[in-house]
Amino acid sequence: MDFAGNLTRLMDRRGMSQADLARATQLSTAQIACLANGKTKDPRLSTVVKIARALDCPLDALVGADASHRRLPENRYNPDEATTSADEARASAAPREYSNRPPSPLEKALSESLKELMRVHEFDEVSVSALCDHAGVSRRSFYRHFLDKYDLLNYTFYQDLSVEIPHHDDWVCWDYMPEICRAFESDRAYYRHAYRVNGRNSFREYATTRMFPLIAHDLIGCPVSRKVCDAFIVQFFNVVYDNIENWIRNEPNTTAREFAQSLRRNACIFATVLAETASRPPRDE
How confident is the model over 106-129, as pLDDT tens digits? Predict the structure, then answer.
């Protein structure tokens, strides 16, 4: 069976119309129609990847066994490719802006279902079908609200860490730390698995997007170049992020309050020691 036949069969199986698939992939309805009726004979791999993710199927199911060497890109974080500037951090941000309005009953049900499933399973093991079955909603309803399961994951992060923890103009990043840690502590099992989601749409990516401007605001007026400041913010954030991840995974007996106090205290100690050593006259002078 050709691509058009495979696509039509999978859409029928999942109860998705061409408009539903266009919405889920952010392709135009005309593009989907051309693919479904066979007018587009050789679609781009990037287009096939978007459709495969929306239909929650392997590429082989769309393109056939003869293209079995084509695989979905792995969602892995590579520390050697970590963000090193503000521009890169902003470029990697989640593409969607979410509203501050209260979640609808369907959005809330799907978000809670995601959390419940991720308390037991890795994110990669949770399919859109499983989410819909658990929440008692149809796949069509899911795709009317979210592009894919990664979009739902980012929406859930947003609700927990941006809506439930509101922004305060007079707070510094350390004022947010106890609130963030309490949110993690309240649902350790879910966040333990959330931390394992790597690469694009990962928790690290979302947290970078959320925390970068907060730290940058604290450093306004710092007498160094923007490039140097941006690089420091990213490296500082990564240290804090990794410490929180270790706490979530490996220190179940340490409370959020204790951890936040320890993190802040250690930051003060290291900053003081580094300032003292860096202020000493160089030996070659």
Answer: 999 999 999 999 999 999 899 999
Cβ–Cβ under 8 Å, residues 199 and 74: yes
Euclidean distance between CA atoms 13 and 7, whole angstroms: 10
Is 252 exposed, middle or buried, given 0-12, 13-18 or 19+ CB atoms closer than 10 A? Answer: exposed
Q: How far apart are CA 157 and CA 171, in angstroms?
A: 21
C-alpha to C-alpha distance for 48 and 59, rounded to whole angstroms: 7
Between the CA of residue 181 and those of 19, 77, 184, what are the distances in Å?
Answer: 41, 23, 5
Give first-to-last CA distance, the chain, whole Å. 76
CA angle 49, 54, 59 (to 5 degrees): 40
> 108-128 burial string, b = 16+ CB within 10 Å, else e?
ebbbebbbbbbeeeebeebeb
**Is 229 in contact with 177 (CB distance < 8 Å)?**
no
Per residue in 119-163, pLDDT (tens digit) is: 999 998 999 999 999 999 998 889 888 888 888 998 999 999 888
Dist CA 182 CA 226 (whole Å): 32
Nearest to 230, CA basis, from 33, 58, 32, 84: 84
